[in-house]
Amino acid sequence: MEPSTTAGVEKPAGKKAPLMSVEEAIGLVTAGVSALGVEQVAVALADGRVLAQDLPARRTQPPADMSAMDGYAVRGSDIVQTPARLAVIGESAAGRPFPGAVGPGQAVRIFTGAVVPEGADTVVIQENTSRDGDVITTTAPTAALRNVRKKGCDFTAGTPGLFAGRRLTGRDIMLAAAMDHAVLPVARRPRVAVLQTGDELVLPGTGTGQDSEIVVSNAFGLATLARRAGAEVTDLGLVRDDLVAIRAVVEHALSGEFDLVVSSGGASVGDHDLMGPALRAEGVELFVHKIALRPGKPLMFGGKGGVRVLGLPGNPVSSHVCAMVFLVPLLRALQGDTAPGPVTAPARLAVDITANDVRRDFMRARMDRHADGTVHVTPCASQDSAMLSVLASADCLLIRPPFAPAATAGDPCEIIPFDD
């Protein structure tokens, strides 16, 4: 892989430090990343997709002055004094506008969403009128120009209403539809291959009950995070701790079918940690290895021929936390997301905590929202990187910077809320 042109990753020159900072690692993982391409999707299917181009309105909304209330369309100059008597000359309903014009001393019965007739500029709500045949009498004052939605007050034709890089919500899709777009240009979904290594691993429901077995979980969590971030995920399965076997799977993953390969396990430097050697043997240049974070110090990132490779730790919590910090922002960036994250939020500590060491700590924690709107967080009692029950019970990650001093309850802090 050419770092400056294919995968957009620049190799740090002369780096001798044993641990790389989280900020530096995130910078390298997302360096030079741009959207993978553009595809058209039906507006009804665009939820969560990232808009690839600015989206201008194809029409003006409202297309004409519209009534905001049920009542009578009148000339404001005719109702300066109350009571005012006006002759009703017709009706305007949504989709059935009144064909004529309102003259002096006249009114048109009108309903919410109907076009305000020519000559009228005000709607008197029906509660402020009495009617006798074809004559109404205003019973309360109404200021001129009231209860009318002016033409173009929402948006005008040709003006962008949504901008490239925005991850579309249901509200955005409503706006896009109202702007008369049946299909939307969105970034292509990243194609992600997920694999997990380990002789001890078995699939759920397939084990023999031996104490040496561990039921695989990481791949499921990684796939879920990746899909929620907009990726298409292919599970390449479990791979035993064998260099030849791992190389065979890596070779397939690098063949061009995928944009990103994500592995879990084998990222450290033990005798059975073979992911790094397998990647290097297949020509992957690794730019990131050993990060100053907890949990998840052994993390690898590199690429070959435009395919990015992210090697995550094998401990379940470490794998998931690293995926939140590195994988999700990378996938969002690959779709042109202008704010790929990690997305943090301010909070306050609910308890006292001790000083931190050299590594940035992502502690599993619970949030409690107080009556004043502030969020207070309590770290979970155990921060063991293998305990999935603790991860499942948490609803955020409490971020502790390197060398952070001891802090007391009420001190400000920063969190990454879980969004699932």
TrEMBL record:
Keyword Metal-binding, does the record have it? Answer: yes
Keywords linked to the UniProt accession: Magnesium, Metal-binding, Molybdenum, Molybdenum cofactor biosynthesis, Transferase
Q: What is its EC number?
A: 2.10.1.1
* Pfam families given in the database record: MoCF_biosynth (PF00994), MoeA_C (PF03454), MoeA_N (PF03453)
Pathway named in the protein's UniProt entry = Cofactor biosynthesis; molybdopterin biosynthesis
Q: Which reaction does it catalyse?
A: adenylyl-molybdopterin + molybdate = Mo-molybdopterin + AMP + H(+)
Domain MoaB/Mog positions:
193-333
Q: Which InterPro entries match?
A: MoaB/Mog-like_dom_sf, MoaB/Mog_dom, MoCF_biosynth_CS, MoeA-like, MoeA_C_domain_IV, MoeA_C_domain_IV_sf, MoeA_linker/N, MoeA_linker/N_sf
Q: Which cofactor does it need?
A: Mg(2+)
Coiled-coil segments: none
Keyword ATP-binding tagged: no
Alphabetized Gene3D superfamilies for the sequence: MoaB/Mog-like domain, MoeA, C-terminal, domain IV, Molybdopterin biosynthesis moea protein, domain 2, Molybdopterin biosynthesis moea protein, domain 3
Instruction: Describe the family membership recorded for this protein in Swiss-Prot or TrEMBL.
Output: Belongs to the MoeA family.
Annotated function: Catalyzes the insertion of molybdate into adenylated molybdopterin with the concomitant release of AMP.
Q: What is this protein called?
A: Molybdopterin molybdenumtransferase
What's the source species for this entry? Xanthobacter oligotrophicus
Q: What is the lineage of its organism?
A: Bacteria, Pseudomonadati, Pseudomonadota, Alphaproteobacteria, Hyphomicrobiales
Q: Which gene encodes it?
A: glp
